[in-house]
Amino acid sequence: MRAEDPELAAIREVFSHWEQTFGISSTCTTHQLIEAACHKEQQVDTQDVCGAVSSRRLGKWLSSISGRVVGGKRIDVKHDPKHGNKFFLHAVASTPDEGAAHTRGDETERELPLDELPF
After folding, report:
1. What pLDDT score does 75 carry?
2. CB 79: neighbour CB atoms within 10 A?
3. Confidence grade of residue 80 (pLDDT, cut at 50, 70, 90)
4. Shortest CA distance to 89 belongs to which of 80, 78, 81?
5. Would strands 86-91 and 26-28 be described as parallel, antiparallel, or unpaired?
6. 83-114 pLDDT, tens per residue?
7. Model pTM?
8. 6-96 has which CATH code?
């Protein structure tokens, strides 16, 4: 079995957490995403992991994947230099070859811990 592309796995993980926490067709900031992920981890001291997550780096990564359809969802960004960018997760019509270059049907996805996400 071939390993899944780590970036695709990270996108799926972020999309899944986002949808579970904020719902589909929702807008939030990187700070809100980080806080929600830290709360989900339910660690005694969330600053250990969450303090290491850079909202700027997360924002750059989200911007780099904006428009990419994964699992019938995609993120778009509304740039706001005064108040920080807002990111919008929404459902889109999926395409037949979505993710085909990165995955095979017999692969299983695994949940990535916060420290393995690319931000």
Report:
1. 93
2. 8
3. confident
4. 78
5. antiparallel
6. 889 999 999 875 544 444 333 333 333 444 54
7. 0.69
8. 1.10.10
- What confidence category does residue 81 fall into, taking pLDDT thresholds of 50, 70 and 90? confident
Secondary structure of the chain in the HEC alphabet? Answer: CCCCCHHHHHHHHHHHHHHHHHCCCEEECHHHHHHHHHHHHCCCCCHHHHCCCCHHHHHHHHHHHCCCCECCEEEEEECCCCCCCEEEEEECCCCCCCCCCCCCCCCCCCCCCHHHCCC
Look-up of token digits 């957490």: 17
Amino acid type, 111: E
Q: In which residue are the tokens 């980080």 written?
A: 34
Altogether, the residues listed in the chain come to a count of: 119
What CA–CA distances, in Å, run from 90 to 3, 99, 102, 113, 116? Answer: 27, 17, 21, 23, 24
